[in-house]
Every structure is written in C-alpha cells, then in structure tokens.
Amino acid sequence: MKTSCSEDCSTSNSGKIARGKSANIQINILEKFIATLDVDYLTFFSFENKINREVSIVHELSVSKRKDKLFDIAERIIKFEIDQFIENAKLGVFYLHKKISLA
C-alpha cells in the first residue's frame, strides 16, 4: 500500500467513513484513500462481495487480463440484440399492416 494519505486517511477518519458517520467525504480525500490502497477506480468501486449480477460482471471485466476481447464480445452481443429487436419490430409492423389490410 502507498502511504500518501497522511492525516486525511487516519484510522479515526477512515473509521468514521466506514461507519457512515462522515457522509460528506470530499473527492480529494476519496482519491487519497484510493491511491493509498493502490487500486484503480473500477476495482475500488466494484464491490465484489455484493450479490448483484451486473456488479459482479463489471468487476470480473475490470480485473480480467482479456478485457478488450471480452468488451468486443459484449459489443457484438449487444449489437445482435439490437438488430434482432429491430427485425422483430419490422415483422410486427408488417403483420399489423397485413391484418389491418385484410379487415
């Protein structure tokens, strides 16, 4: 761990923040805590103990050594989903138009 936090990150101050007694933490203090922990922002904010699928996936992506490849795959999946949605919407409009025409 780095030790650039000095008195802003004292045991007393960090304890207050952890217990929620200091709700108005300043950004510069938060940055010092993160620097002291020697982690990046994504890792710091990725709460891996939380049972939340999205947070868990974001955490795994943020620490993966193959994140660029995984992001490429995710982008292709999202594009495929959007293309499928558009195609289904077109079919729905066509079906409604045909049904109205026959009525």
Short description:
This protein is 68% helix and 0% strand. By secondary structure, it is an all-alpha fold.
Would you give an account of this structure?
The structure is a single chain. By secondary structure, this protein is mostly helical. The protein is built from 5 helices and no strands. It has helices at residues 11-18, 27-37, 41-44, 53-63, 67-102. The radius of gyration is 24 Å and the shape is elongated.
Q: Could you tell me the radius of gyration in angstroms?
A: 24 Å
Give the overall average pLDDT.
Answer: 77
Number of strands: 0
Biggest β-sheet description:
none
Unreliable sequence segments: none
Strand content range: under 5%
Please give the count of helices.
5
List key phrases describing it.
68% helix; 103 residues; elongated; single chain; mainly alpha; 5 helices
SSE layout and pairing:
Elements lengths: L10 H8 L8 H11 L3 H4 L8 H11 L3 H36 L1
